[in-house]
């Protein structure tokens, strides 16, 4: 097959090529930022720098270290810990770079009249994310703020991914793929995929709430919690505007148990969705099934092995990847293409 005409057709608009590649780059960086954010939280580095946007009044950790006696005098209750400060600043640098990429993306999208509403929402969300990042520090890791910051990061990632999926869809159309008739996929399948997405987002919230309240090890053992199938817990105290470490005993158990129950509901839903979607979207279905099994395995291992850092961070990373896979399925079900999509040369529509 001669790929040259296809490449010329797909890349005939330079703006589309740049826009698509920039979206892809921003999506990858957004995933990195989400993983780094989890790493900061898991290493207790959220207050590694007590001010914002700098660190102890400096732009770099090395500069703060060079003036350690001065910065410790300014913050006597929180002396400089270089390792934690570095973790926090790397996350901030990555988030700042992502913000600049998104500014470029918004400018290109508006100029070429692509995704204007979605990009405007994304720009507003990025500004709000920056504020949440600041409040995370100034409000001393208040769980509702930290959890909102996590969900905001996932939302930024999801929006970038959706834009890239749209760009790829357009590229594949230019490469010769044609839309399938709307009757090919039943409305029920679309609704079921949408419900699966909503449940997964809810479960990510529960996971974030469990992490920000340090309830990851509130239940020992699996599948029971402290030897009970329905543990003694205080479900009324789980959600609220409390400070970090305000939840104790029964409240922490309730938080962890709700996360486990949510995981069961999402597992059953997404497993069923994977089976039903496999005839119409086999590759995405395999991805969802694989990530789902991996996520459950990591979650169980975290309980059994006491939340080892690498596995705890991997739990967050796989949750993000699972979210992207379910989004991809929803996009495919709403914008299905013929098998002719395979005509696009590998890498052309990345």
Description:
The chain has 350 residues and is mainly alpha-helical. The protein has 2 domains: 12-179, no CATH class; 184-334, no CATH class. It has 11 helices and no strands. It has helices spanning 4-10, 14-42, 61-66, 68-74, 82-111, 116-138, 143-174, 187-212, 250-277, 282-304, 309-334. Helix 2 packs antiparallel against helix 5. The radius of gyration is 22 Å and the shape is flat. The chain starts with a helix and ends in a 16-residue tail after the last helix. Mean pLDDT is 90; it is low at 1-13. It is found in: Membrane. It comes from Guyparkeria halophila. One of its GO terms (molecular function) is metal ion binding. Keywords: Cell membrane, Disulfide bond, Heme biosynthesis, Iron, Membrane, Metal-binding, Oxidoreductase, Transmembrane, Transmembrane helix.
Question: Helices, strands, pairings?
Answer:
Layout: H1 4-10, H2 14-42, H3 61-66, H4 68-74, H5 82-111, H6 116-138, H7 143-174, H8 187-212, H9 250-277, H10 282-304, H11 309-334
Give a concise summary.
The protein is mainly α and 350 residues long. The protein is built from eleven helices and no strands. It has helices spanning 4-10, 14-42, 61-66, 68-74, 82-111, 116-138, 143-174, 187-212, 250-277, 282-304, 309-334.
- Secondary structure: number of strands: 0
Average of pLDDT: 90
Report low-confidence residues grouped into runs of 5 or more. 1-13
Strand content: under 5%
Overall morphology: flat
Question: Distance N terminus to C terminus?
Answer: 20 Å
Main pleated sheet: none
- The number of domains is 2
Return the structural class. Answer: mainly alpha
| Helix-strand topology string | HHHHHHHHHHH
Radius of gyration: 22 Å
What is the percent of helical residues?
A: 55-70%
Number of helices in the DSSP assignment = 11
Transmembrane segments: 21-42, 93-112, 119-138, 144-164, 191-210, 257-275, 284-305, 317-333
Subcellular location: Membrane
Keywords: Cell membrane, Disulfide bond, Heme biosynthesis, Iron, Membrane, Metal-binding, Oxidoreductase, Transmembrane, Transmembrane helix
InterPro entries: COX15/CtaA_fam (IPR003780), COX15/CtaA_HemeA_synthase (IPR050450)
């Amino acid at each position: 097959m001669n790929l040259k005409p296809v490449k010329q057709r797909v890349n005939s608009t330079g703006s589309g090529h740049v826009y698509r590649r920039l979206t892809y780059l921003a999506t990858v960086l957004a995933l990195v930022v989400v993983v780094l954010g989890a790493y900061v939280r898991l290493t207790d580095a959220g207050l590694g720098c007590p001010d914002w946007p700098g660190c102890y009044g400096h732009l770099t950790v090395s500069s703060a270290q060079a003036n350690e006696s001065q910065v410790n005098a300014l913050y006597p209750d929180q002396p400089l810990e270089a390792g934690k400060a570095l973790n926090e600043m790397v996350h901030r640098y990555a988030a700042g770079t992502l913000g600049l990429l998104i500014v470029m993306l918004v400018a290109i999208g508006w100029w070429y009249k692509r995704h204007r509403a979605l990009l405007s929402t994304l720009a507003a969300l990025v500004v709000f994310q920056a504020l949440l990042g600041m409040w995370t520090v100034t409000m001393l890791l208040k769980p509702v703020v930290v959890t909102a910051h996590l969900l905001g990061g996932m939302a930024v990632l999801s929006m970038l991914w959706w834009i890239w999926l749209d760009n790829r869809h357009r590229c594949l159309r230019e490469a010769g793929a044609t839309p399938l008739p709307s009757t090919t996929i039943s409305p029920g399948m679309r609704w079921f995929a949408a419900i699966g997405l909503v449940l997964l987002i809810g479960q990510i919230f529960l996971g974030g709430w469990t992490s920000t309240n340090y309830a990851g090890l509130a239940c020992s053992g699996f599948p029971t919690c402290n030897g009970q199938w329905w543990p003694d817990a205080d479900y009324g105290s789980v959600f609220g505007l409390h400070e970090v470490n305000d939840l104790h005993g029964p409240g922490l158990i309730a938080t962890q148990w709700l996360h486990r129950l949510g995981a069961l509901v999402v597992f059953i839903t997404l497993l069923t969705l994977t089976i039903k979607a496999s005839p119409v979207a086999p590759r995405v279905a395999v991805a969802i099934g694989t990530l789902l099994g991996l996520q459950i395995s990591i979650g169980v291992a975290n309980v059994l092995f006491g939340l080892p850092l690498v596995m705890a961070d991997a739990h967050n990373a796989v949750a993000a990847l699972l979210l992207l896979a379910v989004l991809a399925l929803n996009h495919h079900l709403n914008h299905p293409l013929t098998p002719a999509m395979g005509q696009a040369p590998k890498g052309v529509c990345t």
